[in-house]
Amino acid sequence: MTEIQSNFSAAARCAERLGQASEKVANAGASSIVRAEKTSVLGNQEALTTNQSVQAMVLQFQQGLTQDIAHVQSVAKEFDYQDAQLKHLFDFAD
């Protein structure tokens, strides 16, 4: 009988790598923006507004990536479950 098997470990590695990427994005977004709050140069307010926009986009991207990680894990679990069910069905038919 041919074995039916999803590759749950590959999906887990993919989710792990996405998680690492998410952490790197968060760290890069937080650490690369330095606010100059002690001067009164007109451009500082515009820079602050731009920095806040970038931080919001980084956060939104990271949240989407976190959702994608959860989806990868969920789909992998579902495929693993379905594979087990099909294997049981085929083994029963033999």
TrEMBL record:
<dbReference type="InterPro" id="IPR021477">
    <property type="entry name" value="TVIIS_effector_SACOL2603_fam"/>
</dbReference>
<protein>
    <submittedName>
        <fullName>TIGR04197 family type VII secretion effector</fullName>
    </submittedName>
</protein>
